[in-house]
Amino acid sequence: MTSEEIKRSLPMAELFRQYGIQVNRAGFAHCPFHSGDRTPSMKVYKDSYYCYGCHATGDVFTFVERMDDVDFKTAFIKLGGVYDKMTPLQRMRIRESNEAQARKRWAEEKAKERRRKELNDIDSCQKRLDALEPLSNEWCEEMDRLERLKRHAGFYDE
Is 98 part of a structural domain of the chain? Predict the structure, then answer.
């Protein structure tokens, strides 16, 4: 299982029960990371926890790490995680795929920027046109410019 699959399949309240920690109906439990609680101070959410007393917070992995005093890898394996050993070729393909996705996102963002600029140019041209005397030389030049901008932006494409 991957870390995301573990997080989806193991609710925090269930993990608390496995460690013998009672969670009340309101979703609170006595914090196992500090002492002196008279009332439960740790809020247990579906996929995380937060202690209002000692400010401990985290997900299923950080909880197991702190409870068992282990590193992430050990907590991951203890919760049913499996490390897939990848070949260098598999790692290279994943890296190439990630780079291709990044290039695609960059190109999409640039296209959005160009489109915003085109629309801003059209808007400002329209405002200048509205301020000019209709059919004057300046108005005709601005109207020609507006038509060129609209054609370039694809307003007249079918």
Answer: yes
